[in-house]
Amino acid sequence: MKAILQTESEAKTVAMLRAIAHPARFRIVKLLAARASCVCGDLVLELPLAQSTVSEHVKVLKDAGIIRGTIAGPNTCYCLEPAALAWLQREFGELRSACCRG
Amino acid sequence: MKAILQTESEAKTVAMLRAIAHPARFRIVKLLAARASCVCGDLVLELPLAQSTVSEHVKVLKDAGIIRGTIAGPNTCYCLEPAALAWLQREFGELRSACCRG
DNA sequence: CCAGCTCATCGTAAAATCCCGATGTGAAGG
DNA sequence: CCTTCACATCGGGATTTTACGATGAGCTGG
């Protein structure tokens, strides 16, 4: 992928979108949104993927700032990062407000 | 990429996100949002990419339903698809409304 | 301390993406 | 008709992503 000059804001948004724009990771985000409690290894049960694969997807989401993980004894507990979702929602709102006249 | 059972709505959202989640394509969307007029080959001038590459990025966005292209004589004129941006904004709004309690 | 559980990381093979130059296509203009 | 301009598509090489099994690391109960 060729580098394109990006503002910091653009880079942040694109990084978040890349993280979410994957079937398994989008599903993880939806699961975290739907469950009353922060899930952890339950994600592995919900997805038809190996444990290591799920762990890597979770890492991608965490690195992008979409989710947050806290260690709870032997497990890790994940939950959504509200600010990230709010950021993305606002981003699309701004794009939508300027629109084509054709 | 392993197939994950998706609802039609999920698939649509993920496809749109995949399309936008790329530096060049996100830039294209922002350019279309910023310009007063629908641009066309101007995109090639704005991006440090070959014409064929830009054309392919545009095709990805079009296939995902993010932008719309209309032929205007020898050129093609692109503009944003408002419904797509609204859809994505709403999607993030829904995710945000359900959130972690940690 | 050891066994066992949960989760993270490593090594790597398969697949997808990204980008480009070359070439195809279709509309004007001469 | 022939050229030219704008754009799309093709073929293919480089890079990245995805997924897995195996293994590492940390906590916990016995």
Task: Describe what you observe in this structure.
Two copies of one chain form a homodimer. Chain A is mainly alpha-helical. The first copy, chain A, has a single domain (9-91), classed as Orthogonal Bundle (Arc Repressor Mutant, subunit A), CATH 1.10.10. In chain A, 58% of the residues lie in helices and 12% in strands. Chain A is globular and about 45 Å long. The model of chain A has no long low-confidence stretch (mean pLDDT 93). Chain A binds a DNA duplex (30 and 30 nucleotides) through residues 1-2, 22, 24, 40-41, 44, 49-59, 71, 73-76.
How would you briefly describe this protein structure?
Two copies of one chain form a homodimer. By secondary structure, chain A is mostly helical.
Give keywords.
5 helices; two-stranded antiparallel ribbon; homodimer; 12% strand; DNA-binding; 58% helix; mainly alpha; 102 residues; Arc Repressor Mutant, subunit A
